Amino acid sequence: MAEKVEVLVDGGKATPGQPLGPVLGPLGVNVIQVVAAINEKTRAFTGMKVPVKIVVEKDRSFTVEVGTPPTSALILKELGAEKGSGKPRTDKVGDLSIEQARKIARMKQDSLLGRNLRNAVKEVIGACVSMGVTVEGKDPREVQREIDEGKHDGLLKG
Predict the structure, then answer these.
(1) Higher pLDDT residue, 65 or 107?
(2) What single string gives the DSSP state of each residue in 52-84?
(3) How far, in Å, CA of 8 to CA of 14, rounded?
(4) Rounded to the nearest 10 degrees, how much is the dihedral formed by the CA atoms of 123, 10, 134, 129?
(5) Domain ranges of the chain
(6) Exposure of 27 by Cβ count < 10 A (0-12 exposed, 13-18 middle, 19+ buried)?
(7) Could you tell me which of 7, 68, 56 has the C-alpha nearest to residue 29?
(8) How far, CA to CA in Å, does 12 sit from each of 22, 43, 72?
(9) pTM of the model
(10) Distance CA 69, CA 44 (A)
(11) Where are the beta strands (DSSP E) in the chain?
(12) CA pair distance 38, 124, nearest whole angstrom
């Protein structure tokens, strides 16, 4: 039976220390090789916490499965912001473009509920409401209505 280890690591910066070393060492797998594989697969998420699942087989071979960071973390990375607003109704921390929302939706397409790109983008934009982020300089709910009305169909085909 394969052993499964799930951890949250800094993208592209996993180390053989905590939390990986103490968990993987007793499984008899080469921790350095596992760390190298994780860093290679998470390089695109540098500066973010990334969920990682390591499956170690009886023969000590392993596979690394990388999840995607939360939508809010991807939005903050796109904006270059530290964190969302403590008062999202009045204090805005940034302005997301439809193109950036589309990029995030594509990164998260496997874990979002939207069945198509249009709905996935609306889902990403919905996360902006509670974070104090505007979209195209407007309230995110207004942009969601515009998407429903077809105003951004040129960008959201696919």
Answers:
(1) 65
(2) EEEEE-TTS-EEEEE----HHHHHHHHHT-SS-
(3) 9
(4) 50
(5) 3-66, 71-148
(6) middle
(7) 56
(8) 19, 4, 19
(9) 0.67
(10) 11
(11) 3-10, 49-56, 62-66, 94-96, 133-135
(12) 26
* Gap between the terminal Cα atoms of the chain: 40
**Which class would CATH give 71-148?**
mainly alpha
List the CATH code of the domain at 3-66. Answer: 3.30.1550.10
Q: Are 100 and 59 in contact (CB under 8 A)?
A: no
Buried b (16+ CB within 10 A) or exposed e, 96-115: bebebbbbbbebbeeebeee
Conformation bin of residue 28: beta by default, left when phi > 0, alpha when psi is -120 to 50: left
CA-closest candidate to residue 65, choices 84, 52, 80:
52
Residues in the chain: 158
Instruction: State residue 36's pLDDT score.
Output: 92
pLDDT band at 158 (very low <50, low <70, confident <90, very high): low
Burial grade of 45 (CB within 10 A; 0-12, 13-18, 19 or more): buried
Tens of pLDDT, residue by residue over 33-86, are 999 999 988 887 887 788 889 998 888 888 988 887 888 888 888 888 788 778
How far apart, in Å, are the Cα atoms of 64 and each of 27, 69, 129? Answer: 15, 16, 34
Beta carbons within 10 angstroms of residue 26's beta carbon: 8
